[in-house]
């Protein structure tokens, strides 16, 4: 997971993340990774509209968000 987070931070792209909290609640978050540490990482969370710190071991899945351009005539 850490490698994917670093790639996202260096490439400056947004991710969809499935995350499990300490109490076992699973949530889907859209994030922009700002900083990656050894055990945790900081990201801007679009759900909470603020900067959050997440534990890397609690990340269940990461999926990059791909924006497609549409042609308007």
Q: What integer value in Å does the Rg equal?
A: 13 Å
Oligomer: single chain
What is the level-2 CATH architecture name?
A: Roll
- Reported by name, the CATH topology is SH3 type barrels
CATH uppermost class = Mainly Beta
Q: What is the makeup of the main sheet?
A: 5 strands, antiparallel
Tell me the domain tally. Answer: 1
Features:
single chain, 73 residues, mainly beta, SH3 type barrels, five-stranded antiparallel sheet, 1 helix, 5 strands
Task: Write structural notes for this entry.
With 73 residues, this protein is mainly β. The protein has a single domain (2-64), classed as SH3 type barrels, CATH 2.30.30. The chain contains one helix and five strands, in the order αβββββ. It has a five-stranded antiparallel sheet. The longest helix is centred in the first third of the chain and has 10 residues, at 2-11. It is globular, with a radius of gyration of 13 Å.
Summarize the structure.
The chain has 73 residues and is mainly beta. It has a single domain (2-64), classed as SH3 type barrels (Roll).
